Amino acid sequence: MGSKNKLKRFRENETFANVLQPKRDELIDNLFQWKGKWNSEYFKNDQPIVLELGCGKGEYTVALAKRNPDKNYIGIDIKGARFWRGAKTAVEENLQNVAFLRTQIELIEQAFAPGEVSEIWITFPDPQIKYKRTKHRLTNQEFLARYKNILKADGVVNLKTDSEFMHGYTLGLLHGAGHEVLYANHHIYKNEGAPEEVTAIQTFYESQYLEQNKPITYIKFKIK
Questions:
Q1: Strand duo 49-53 + 72-77: pairing
Q2: Alpha-carbon torsion 191, 143, 60, 70, what sign?
């Protein structure tokens, strides 16, 4: 993507009511206005809040929101030029249950209050993300502890990935730490039983992986 195109998207994001771009200091200093008020003041309803972490272009966030108008969806990514597409689609289609938050996932506890979130989706994450000059995975113990802090007591996490390594790593970690694996499938399009919203929604990259015959994996779990 050219720098002109990126700048155009950044400028357009600033005009979208469904895009929130708090400064890092605002989050760290606990000054983010929507923390603890997503239902009461932002969405103005009491519907469950669902996050997609590392939402990329926002395709999954928007598709889930269309399928489930009785839930509120927030796509989170540090790259605003990417989720511009999802935000624009949501504006064009007047989807009132969609928002996009531009921030780093390590600051998620500064953006949401304890027990404010009902469900988390992690779709096709980089198996290793750079974090504080080291490499971490979005399902390591440190991140799971963050998710637990913002999830309701019965909240669930969904991991959908083309990385067999990430699938195996996460399953091993979950079992080893005593978390509750509700469902696991190492090839959702070959083995029956995956929830419909896991197979019915395909991102652009997912369709490319399928053309390469890469198995798509899925885990649904609760953090104990």
A1: parallel
A2: positive
Averaged pLDDT, 39-55: 97
The domain made up of 3-222 is a member of CATH 3.30.1160.10: no
Residue 127 pLDDT more than 70? no
For the cut 80, the answer to whether the pLDDT of residue 128 exceeds it is: no
Q: Which helix (H) or strand (E) holds 52?
A: strand 49-53
Q: Is 126 a catalytic residue?
A: yes
Residue 108: closest CA among 44, 155, 47: 155
d(CA 29, CA 37): 17
Determine the Cα–Cα distance for residues 1 and 130; give it in Å rounded to an integer.
Answer: 21
Considering the chain, what is the average pLDDT of its residues?
93
Helix (H) or strand (E) holding 81: helix 80-92
3-state secondary structure of 72: strand
CA-to-CA distance for 189 and 194, rounded, in angstroms? 8
The reported pTM is 0.93
What are the residues facing 218 on neighbouring strands? 160, 185
CA–CA separation, 105 and 111 (whole Å): 10
Domain residue extents for the chain: 3-222
Residues 46, 126, 154, 162: which is the catalytic one? 126
Half-sphere exposure of 120 (CA within 13 A, CB side): 30
